[in-house]
Automatic annotation (TrEMBL):
NCBIfam families in the cross-refs: pepN_proteo
Lineage per the UniProt record: Bacteria, Pseudomonadati, Pseudomonadota, Betaproteobacteria, Burkholderiales
InterPro entries on file: Aminopeptidase_N-like_N, Aminopeptidase_N-like_N_sf, PepN_Ig-like_sf, Peptidase_M1, Peptidase_M1_dom, Peptidase_M1_pepN, Peptidase_M1_pepN_C, Peptidase_M1_pepN_C_sf
Organism: Pollutimonas harenae
Name of the protein in question: Aminopeptidase N
CDD domains per record: M1_APN (cd09600)
Keyword entries, A-Z: Aminopeptidase, Hydrolase, Metal-binding, Metalloprotease, Protease, Zinc
Cofactor: Zn(2+)
Broad class of enzyme this protein falls into: hydrolase
Length: 896
């Protein structure tokens, strides 16, 4: 049994650091086997008395230590595994530390590590302590000057944050570069990169007329794949100027692609390091989805330059301060890019596509998290391992909490609040509460006497609130009364306290519209204005609003635009949902109505299969789908969203107890039935959205058509239409872009029973074996194929192209199988396989292992036999002698 459980760190225990760090000078002598780092740190007393100086370190070998130029002997300091304590005798002093680290032994990909023969650093959240002894916390900000020395042939390029001051050759084939970053920063934003790269660059003029050099560095030979990335970066810079009034504050902004990377990308000041998957793209190798993801991640990291870097977090409990806000900003950037050149309802519908995708992600990843053992507020109260708190809650729910502030303040008010935030806090390390206060200052001006006192609770309350809706209509005086009632049941550790702690009500902006029986909008008069959509401020447990001059019994359109991260409880008939599906003028709510209808149908099928009764598909449901398919007013991108069935994982969340195999059966059955019943329109849709010979562009309109075409192909394959396999094969072999190629191959992998599928997979491998990102897709396709078993995955793991050390590859095969192949994973062998892989990954990369460990957080909600089997698999992990603190925290919470 494991003995050393990591201590729990609490938000309330925050203490300011007793010293200011005025200057950091780092000398790197790079060598993959052993790198020597000489650090010179200048400190100034910040507390009222002299206190011991505590520095963090991990996997470092200390060579020497000097205080104000005098070497310290081991009796003069305390050194243990993770801290070094020095006792300064003056308020202002310089500490010189020489230490060694071993990049090529560093498989955690935190600190300084080797990837593809190059050297990279990753310091967020606590990686800098693997580089040198340091006050590795975000509220200690300093100016950095960095000298890098390395072999010139092996590492022709030496990069760090800021500006390049000098570069020169040294003896013995080595060279050096000196970088200086004029902006004070916390250690988590430090970066260093060394190696051989292609570089694509462009000089742009920022709004004030300054020149800025934008550069994208990638593997030698991949220059042709960085055009899109540089274009995304340029658009990000322009967008932040035009929409948020924020100008680039650097002369040089660099992005570097790494093949081994734990996350998506990292916003190091002026030197972003990216997972290559979010940099490299061309028509032959990247799908439309990859192009959009690159745009989102490049935007996200760039936007951090202001929201995260200029104003940073006081401590890691405030992570959502930068992440929630920056996710909100990247979501808005992507939505604006989709709506470029459009206006009115067309622009709204284009933006809604992004909103739909974001809400789907939230429901898929965050809602279950908020209902499970890892539930935490967007500003967590405690953690054992901060790496475990880069969660959907902190990021995605955090973004929803920012979005609600945007809704409450309006665009202009939100901009004013943000300007106030920068006015107050530029250059500082602050808290979520500081952000809310800046926003509140504008809100209180707009709404005299009101505050964000209740709104603030979103930062401290876990769980997805439920909003019960009831509506009554009085024909005699043409009034309609809407009552909203909120409750937020206990989640996670809250369930352990008896009696359960009551959770106070939240401030929920609830957007509402009313439709007449003919589907037309019924304007609502609220706060003196008449509008088709109004926003109700729900601040108490229960509130009612009465609207007058409503000429008929209305059908409500609820939580338009998904105005709050809540679950709406309102019983309504499928007939009303069908009406909303056809007429709701809010494109988000319209999609929601179609999804709800589909969920009702799917859940009825799950039940039928569970009871062994004949499955039936409601002809009205098919009718609704037909009318959507034939609706010429919808864009292809929107139509593809509205006609997609809820994912199996989303549906699984709705079954009680969770019934994975029933969900698989029901999903497949409904796809087959929809395919068969609508064969002609699917076929027509397929052909109408085939772009012929036009050269590939990743623009929203043509990628929308490809998405819809591929959806049609899947329905036709599901229905075993006689032409479908030929269409899929032709699409695969003749494709002139990766979206079509993957669309064809994926349809085959999911539905074909012929040997053609295996041949196509072999052909794909042959053709793309040199391209790691494409081969990731090849592994993923097989991981999620319905026929794939544990045995097949084990066979793929011994394929020469598979490596557990590369996070992208592990995610492509292992994570995809465990998370998205319900049929394959929910078997006794599946669970044992999952536990084995968590333990195997934990030996080399605890951050990644802990993510896989979370796959069955919700084990207790499964029916038997899954529940007992999952419990056993979790126990098996818990019993292992040497778990990392990362995995240990996850497993112990799951078993709590
Ligand atoms: N701040 C980054 C996320 C990130 C966090 C940790 C990392 O290393 C383990 C890497 C990146 C972002 O939000 O993009
Ligand atoms: Zn971020």
């Amino acid at each position: 049994m494991r003995t050393d459980t990591a201590p729990t760190i609490s938000r309330h225990d925050y203490q300011p650091y007793p010293y200011r760090l005025t200057q950091v000078t780092l000398d790197f002598d790079l060598d993959p086997g052993q790198t020597r780092v000489q650090a010179q740190l200048q400190f100034e007393q910040a507390a009222t008395s002299l206190q011991p100086l505590v520095l963090n370190g991990q996997d470092l070998q200390l060579e020497s230590l000097a205080l104000n130029g005098r070497a310290l002997t081991p009796e003069q300091y305390q050194l243990n595994d993770d801290t070094l304590v020095v006792h300064p005798d003056t308020g202002t002093f310089t500490l010189e530390i020489t230490s060694l680290c071993q990049p090529d032994k560093n498989t955690s990909l935190m600190g300084l590590y080797v990837s593809g023969g190059k050297l990279f650093t990753q310091c967020e959240a606590e990686g800098f302590r693997r580089i040198t002894w340091f006050p590795d916390r975000p509220d200690v900000m300093a100016r950095y000057r960095v000298r890098i020395r390395a072999n010139k042939q092996q590492y022709p390029l030496l990069l760090s944050n800021g500006n390049l001051l000098e570069q020169r050759d040294l003896a013995d084939g080595r060279h050096e570069a000196i970088w200086e970053d004029p902006h004070p920063k916390p250690s988590y934003l430090f970066a260093l990169v060394a190696g051989s790269f292609d570089c694509r660059e462009q000089t742009i003029k920022t709004r004030s007329g300054r020149d800025a050099l934008l550069q994208v560095y990638s593997d030698v030979g991949t220059y042709n794949k960085t055009e899109w990335a540089l274009d995304c970066l340029t658009r990000s810079v322009k967008w932040d100027e035009s929409r948020f009034n924020l100008e680039l504050d650097l002369d040089r902004f660099m992005i570097v692609a790494a093949h081994d990377f734990n996350m998506g990308a990292m916003e190091n000041k002026g030197l972003n390091v990216f997972n290559a998957a979010y940099v490299l793209a061309d028509a032959d190798t990247a799908t439309d989805a990859a192009y959009r993801a690159i745009e989102a991640v490049i935007g996200h990291e760039y936007f951090h330059n202001w929201t995260g870097n200029r104003v940073t977090c006081r401590d890691w409990f405030q992570l959502s301060l930068k992440e929630g806000l920056t996710v909100f900003r990247d979501q808005e950037f992507s939505a604006d890019m989709l709506a470029q050149g459009l206006d009115g309802a067309e622009a709204e519908s284009a933006r809604a596509v992004k909103r739909i995708d974001d809400v789907s992600t939230l429901r898929l990843a965050q809602f279950p998290e908020d209902a499970g053992p890892m539930a935490h507020p967007i500003r967590p109260e405690s953690y054992q391992e901060i790496g475990n708190f880069y969660t959907a809650t902190v990021y995605e729910k955090g973004a929803e909490v920012i979005r609600m502030q945007h809704t409450l303040l309006g665009e202009a008010g939100f901009q004013a609040g943000l300007a106030e935030y920068f006015r107050r806090h530029d250059g500082a390390a602050v808290t979520c509460d500081d952000f809310v206060s800046a926003m509140e200052s504008v809100y209180a001006k707009q709404n005299p006497g009101k505050s964000f006192d209740i709104f603030r609770r979103w930062y401290s309350q876990a769980g997805t609130p439920r909003v019960q809706v009831s509506l009554s209509y009085a024909a005699e005086d043409q009034t309609c009364t809407v009552t909203l009632r909120q409750h937020n049941p206990p989640v996670g550790i809250e369930k352990l306290s008896t009696p359960p702690q009551a959770k106070p009500p939240l401030h929920i902006p609830f957007a509402l519209g009313l439709l007449g029986q003919d589907g037309q909008a019924l304007p609502i008069t609220h706060e003196g204005k008449a509008a088709d959509t109004i926003v109700l401020d729900l601040c108490h447990e229960e509130q009612s609003w009465t609207f007058t001059q409503i000429p008929e019994q209305p059908i409500p359109s609820l939580l338009r635009r998904f105005s709050a991260p809540v679950i709406v409880e309102f019983d309504r008939s499928n007939a009303d949902l069908a009406l909303l599906t056809r007429h709701d003028s809010d494109p988000f709510a319209r999609w929601e109505a179609a999804q709800t209808l589909a969920s009702h149908q799917l859940l009825a099928l799950v039940q039928a299969f569970a009871r062994n009764t004949a499955p039936e598909v409601d002809p009205h449901f098919i009718g609704t789908w037909r009318s959507l398919l034939n609706d010429t007013s919808l864009t292809a991108a929107y139509k593809a969203r509205v006609l997609s069935l809820p994912s199996q994982r989303e549906l699984l969340e709705k079954t009680t107890p969770m019934d994975p195999l029933g969900v698989v059966q029901a999903s497949r059955y409904l796809r087959v039935e929809l395919g068969k019943a609508l064969v002609e329109p699917w076929l027509a849709t397929y052909h109408a959205n085939t772009d012929g010979d036009t050269p590939y562009q990743p623009d929203p309109a043509s990628s929308g058509r490809r998405t819809l075409k591929n959806l049609a192909l899947n329905y036709l394959m599901a229905a075993q239409h006689p032409q479908a396999e030929q269409l899929a094969l032709a699409q695969y072999y003749d494709a002139r872009n990766m979206t079509d190629r993957m669309g064809g191959l994926s349809a085959l992998v999911h539905y074909s029973t012929s040997t053609e599928c295996g041949r196509a997979l072999d052909h794909f491998y042959e053709q793309w074996q040199q391209d790691a990102l494409v081969i990731d897709k090849w592994f993923t396709l097989q991981a999620v194929a319905p026929t794939t078993s544990v045995e097949k995955i084990r066979a793929l793991m011994v394929h020469p192209a598979f490596s557990m050390r590369n996070p992208n590859r592990a995610r492509a095969l292992i994570f995809q199988f465990c998370l998205n192949n319900l049929q394959g994973i929910h078997t006794p062998e599946g669970y044992a396989f999952w536990a084995d892989q968590v333990l195997a990954l934990d030996q080399t990369n605890p951050e990644i292992a802990a993510r896989l460990a979370r796959a069955f957080d919700n084990w207790a909600r499964f029916g038997q036999p899954q529940r007992d089997a999952l419990h056993q698999a979790l126990e098996h992990i818990r019993q292992q002698p040497k778990l990392s603190p990362n995995v240990s925290e996850i497993i112990s919470k799951a078993l709590n």
